[in-house]
Amino acid sequence: MQYSTTVLESQADWLTASFHTRDSAARAKSDAERWTRQEQANGAEVKSFCVSNYVGWMAGRVRYGESQKGAIIQLSGQLAEDHIPDMVPRASNVSRLDLAVTVRIEPSRTDVGRAAFNDACDYRAFHPSSARPSLYENGDGGATLYVGDRASNWILRVYNKEAECVENRDTPGAEHYAGCWRYELEVKGKDALRQAQLYHAVDSRPTHVQGYVYQWTVNHGVVPAFPYDGSVKLEPGFRRRSDRDSRLLWLAESVRPAVQWLRESTDRTTLIGLLGLDT
Q1: Order of all β-strands in the sheet with 93-106
Q2: Does residue 20 sit in the same domain as residue 137?
Q3: Pair 47, 30: CB distance under 8 Å
Q4: Could you tell me if 171 and 144 are in contact, meaning their C-beta atoms sit under 8 angstroms apart?
């Protein structure tokens, strides 16, 4: 069977940066507060956050903490991609950077993870010192290939993005990522800072991510379902759904039925009071 592929996303998916000077830490806190307000406006709840002796808060795609050393910020999804240009140059360190390529395969395939796992195992049989592959599958088409382990500075994840959305009961997400697989390369430790600086300096970040993730994957025995050279262009206008879209969907699918039941069971004044709304 012939398959066609379209690269939908090729960008950073996670950034962890720390700031150890007084000015950079103060700027980091100001940025985190501003981004947190934006996440709250989109419906995110503020919760406590603690990592590596940094203590602070988290909301949606933003995590912020303080310690005697200074401050730390973790950004995920589109926020990581959007703020690398201003975060990396002033960061004292970058301890994690994720690079992700999302590709749509038509007709849809559920065997990409299994095939990639078999290829990685074959490669390791002849290169026993290479990163170890692992595969996790479920009965709904979900599959995640890991090449490497959590203790290493490099780990590749290849997973069925559509199936992940189905598992999370995210119907619009499943439609948004229909037939999609994500190749996600996580870089940590001293390698993360070098990769973040390189990522910041390149002329075309999407082209860089696509080529870099492709080459790393091939070097570990797996040929990705997307090309190296960017010849399959990013789909025009395709952007990740915001947390606001996801939360509005959750309200529509999960909260509205409960509100409808309350409307039928109580009077308007009581309903408004229960929901904490102004009259």
Answers
A1: 47-51, 54-59, 62-67, 70-76, 4-19, 93-106, 180-188, 154-160, 143-147, 133-137
A2: yes
A3: no
A4: no
Query: What is the SS3 assignment for 251?
Result: helix
159 and 259 assigned to the same domain: no
Q: What's at 107, amino acid-wise?
A: P
- Give 175-213 pLDDT, tens digit per residue: 889 999 999 999 999 999 999 999 999 999 999 999 999
* 268-275: long-range contacts, CB 8 A cutoff, minimum separation 24: none
High-pLDDT (> 90) share of the chain, %: 67
- Tokens matching residue 214: 């492709």
- Secondary element (H or E) of residue 250: helix 243-250
DSSP characters for 201-219?
H-S-HHHHHHHHHHHHHHT
Query: Does the model's pTM come out above 0.90?
Result: no
Clarify whether residues 188 and 264 are in a common domain. no
**CA-to-CA distance for 226 and 246, rounded, in angstroms?**
27
Nearest CA among 205, 227, 4 for reference residue 104:
4
Q: Do 247 and 43 touch, CB atoms closer than 8 A? A: yes
| pLDDT given for residue 151 in this prediction | 84
Q: How many angstroms separate the CA atoms of 223 and 188, rounded?
A: 23
* Separation of alpha carbons 24 and 33, rounded Å: 14
pLDDT of residue 276: 59
Integer Cα distance of 134 and 120 in angstroms = 9
Say which residue, 38 or 241, is predicted with more confidence.
Answer: 38
Query: 64: domain range?
Result: 4-240
Task: Convert the pLDDT of each residue in 110-132 to its tens digit.
Answer: 899 999 999 999 999 999 999 99
Domain count across the chain = 2
